[in-house]
Each structure stands twice: as structure tokens, then as C-alpha cells.
């Protein structure tokens, strides 16, 4: 999940970086790393489901994104586990 630092950077500064961010996420999607993505409804930013073998791998992937490299957003990586409630009893 991302949250943009809108108090520290202007809309023009974000507009300058967002095409690069979009292309980086598009490449991650094409490579199969990003499975799904949503825009947040409560603030500027996104939430995406990232396929990774470990928490460290996921954190490394998001740290390479342009907004992360420029410290313009906070990226929070939350590890998930499969939900077993729909499986056999």
C-alpha cells in the first residue's frame, strides 16, 4: 500500500514522476510480480497485490519504484497468507 507525501511535494512534482511510476508498475504487472492493483479511495496512492517469494523480495521490489527512490511516498508491505475458510472441512 502506498501513501503519497502530499504535504512535502507539490502536484507538479508528482506529475513529473508519475509516468515513470506507471511504467514501472506496468512492467512489474507484465512480469507477473504485480497481480492486482487498486487506487485508494481515502487518499492519493495505490494498493497492489505483489507476488514474491519473501517479504524481503517484496520490499526490494517496491523500493525500486520511482516514488520510493525519491522518497515521495511511503510503501507499506503487508505479508498475506491463504484464507482456509473455503477449503475442505
Describe this structure in words.
The chain has helices spanning 11-30, 55-63, 66-69; strands spanning 2-4, 34-39, 46-50, 73-75. The chain is an alpha+beta fold and 89 residues long. The chain contains three helices and four strands; from the N terminus they run E-H-E-E-H-H-E. 37% of the residues lie in helices and 19% in strands. The strands form two sheets. A two-stranded antiparallel sheet has the order 1-4.
Report how far the terminal alpha carbons are from each other: 33 Å
List the uncertain runs.
none
What's the assembly state of these chains? single chain
Q: Compute the number of strand runs.
A: 4
**Could you spell the SSE succession in H and E letters?**
EHEEHHE
Order of adjacent strands in the largest pleated sheet: 1-4
Structural class by helix and strand composition:
alpha+beta
Specify the number of helices. Answer: 3
Q: What's the rounded overall pLDDT mean? A: 91
Strand content: 15-25%
Largest sheet: 2 strands, antiparallel
